[in-house]
Amino acid sequence: MDYELKIEQNRKRNEKFIKEFESWLTQKDLVKKTIRKHLNNVSLYINDYLNYYDVEKMEDGIYSIYGFLDGWFIEKCLWSSRNSLKETASSIKKFYQCMSEIGYVTVDDYKKLCKEIKDNMDEFLAQMDAFEDGTYYDMFD
Question: Quick check: pTM over 0.85?
């Protein structure tokens, strides 16, 4: 099957998850601006990153967060900053919390995702700092 078609099918499939997440966030009485930010952050992850190297389903994306926050987000998103990195990680945690409550991913996998983000956040932020001060690519020499 054509790669672009697989991406389009995966994005269509993800619409359901995004809508369910939006309903979940709305039930939490968050303001529209906050909901929109969470939806945009999650869409970036499941529709862009998870389709960037190969077509990866949302459920499998729960295991791919390290590569996203450790480099891809920093390198590919021109607006990336310490704050946007933390906000995006928070959005993804909320998304997978919702997905675990609905039953698309296990609670154990959701907890592992949260632990991975927490255990590595200092490293992600150090990568972000290095990117901003121009020493990021020196780290790979």
Answer: yes
